[in-house]
Design brief:
Helix content is about 0%, strand content about 40%. A four-stranded antiparallel β-sheet has the order 1-2-4-3, with no helix packed on it. By secondary structure, it is an all-beta fold. The chain is built from no helices and six strands.
Length: about 80
Amino acid sequence: MIPGFVTAYKDNKNYIHLYFYPGLDDLGRPIYRDIDLKNLKVKYERKKNSDNSVDFKFFNNNIIRLNCKLLVNLTEEEIFETIDL
């Protein structure tokens, strides 16, 4: 098992990134569902990596907090994460 997580960081140009890794359970299945930002009104760029992690780059540099709801694939359990920048 490799735990999933979500975190945020600022790059060298002060763009805010949300980095999400869905994790893998003991059978190789993703633990968390992909992040859905379709209702977000802020411009962003999405980069999916070969390990199924996703790096979202936001073009609004004034973001001070990100609230994320992670959904566990098998149980539908909701896990809330708040990331202060």
